[in-house]
Amino acid sequence: MTIHWCGTGLSAIPGLRRLIKAGHDVTVWNRTLDKAQDAVGDLTEDIRVFDLDAVSAALHAGDVVVSMLPGDWHAPLAQKAIDAGAHFVSSSYIAPEMRDLDNQARSKGVALVNEIGLDPGIDHLMAHHLVETYRASDALDKDAELSFISYCGGIPKTPNPFRYKFSWSPLGVLKALRSPSKSIRDFKEFNVARPWDAITQYIVPLPSPESFEVYPNRDSLPFMAQYHFDTEWNVKEFVRGTMRLNGWADAWANVFAEIETLEGPSGEARLKEMSDKFWEENAYDEGEPDRVVLCVALKAEKNGETTWHQSYVMDAWGDENGTAMARLVSIPLSHAIEAVIAGKIGAGVSAATDDPELLSQWLAEIDKLAQHLTIVNHV
Questions:
Q1: Alpha-carbon gap, residue 29 to 35, rounded angstroms
Q2: Which is catalytic among the residues 119, 123, 290, 315?
Q3: Which residues are registered as beta bridge partners of 19?
Q4: In 3-state terms, what secondary structure has residue 225?
Q5: pLDDT digits (tens, 9 = 90+) for 126-163
Q6: Distances (CA, A) of 282 to 120, 154, 163, 184, 212
Q7: Which of 88, 274, 277, 326 is the most buried (most CB within 10 A)?
């Protein structure tokens, strides 16, 4: 059984190195050999130039294909894995093209595991834990009003005037700002065309409580089912969103105004120009620590009183071993790969596990990755 790890970008390295050090048979595929050799050349010589057909030719039944490449490669690699009777793992959101492979994967008995990095990934694990803890509590009440939030942000540990720094191309961040979102606010669907139209403040219950700017992203609504919310539950608020340093909205006001006007090929070209400029001016310096803050919370209220309220809170930052973002994305991914190898994840397309045993194990491992991880009981 071989793990075929495709992509050695910054967020891939700690998990990849962990698997190689653990003695797994790993073939590393990357479009640029030099970068892969710099990343893991001290641990392995099995480093190859990435090519879809070459990966396909190397696959055997029971192997695991790992994609840390841009999202467009996930479904083609997953299809090659299915064809070979191999499994597939990525940290990315499940795209429609990936979801369409579910029946094929089930018929072949192979697992296509996604959404097991940081966000999505660790946030899902926290959400599953909170929902199941609430279910098991005496406060469970079908008449309660439930509020759920999940906010995550990769932010500079030392704030800069732009209130944000980039560890890879800013183009993805800029494109995400053009995406609409759906969430639940005041019991109703809350649709937002642009994130800056819905920026609010949120106080994260860290040891010293800290305020951040937050906004909803993507479509939060399908995650109510993923987190096993009962359909009859009375949901007052449900939002998955992004966290930024206070002052971010003001620092980016001119960016928002320009993005609003961009359309067509010329708009895409201008986004690329902006991306290049931001990278030049606001990229992390080598060795500069980043910071990741994640807060997932569930609250139940009845007759105006809070009956149950817990927050899962994480604060992590880069150290001498690398960035917080890299270890929080790739090490949970590496644990999912090992679970697939051990046959602990069933066939078909799936996201981060809700299996109680794996959930407990993985959250315990994540506790080793963050400088602060705790559950706050507010009641």
A1: 11
A2: 119
A3: none
A4: helix
A5: 999 999 999 999 999 999 999 999 999 999 999 999 99
A6: 25, 14, 9, 34, 20
A7: 88
Strand ranges inside the chain, DSSP E: 3-6, 26-30, 47-49, 64-67, 87-90, 111-113, 145-156, 181-185, 188-192, 200-204, 210-216, 234-244, 290-302, 305-317, 348-350, 372-377
| Beta strands 188-192 and 181-185, pairing class | antiparallel
224/230 Cα distance (integer angstroms): 8
Q: Which pair of structure tokens corresponds to residue 163?
A: 């209130």
- 338 falls within a domain: no
For the record, the structure tokens of 327 come out as 């270890």
First vs last C-alpha separation in the chain: 49
Range of the domain at 223: 122-323+354-377
Beta 372-377 vs 305-317: how paired, if at all?
antiparallel
Give the pLDDT of residue 10: 84
Q: How far apart are CA 308 and CA 326, in angstroms?
A: 34
CATH code, 10: 3.40.50.720
The CATH number for 165's domain is 3.30.360.10
Whether 340 has a pLDDT exceeding 90, the answer reads yes
Tally the domains of the chain.
Answer: 2
Is the domain of 225 the same as that of 252?
Answer: yes
pLDDT in tens, 58-95: 999 999 999 999 889 999 999 999 999 999 999 999 99
CB 13 within 8 A of CB 38: no
DSSP bridge partners of 234: 145
On whether both 103 and 128 belong to a single domain, the answer is no
Q: Calculate the alpha carbon distances from 62 to 108, 109, 347, 348 in Å.
A: 11, 10, 12, 14
**pLDDT for the residue 191:** 97
119 is catalytic: yes
Residue 187 pLDDT greater than 90, yes or no:
yes
Which of 90, 113, 136 finishes a domain? Answer: 113
Residues 127 and 102 in one domain: no
In angstroms, rounded to a whole number, what is the distance separating the alpha carbons of residues 142 and 161? 47
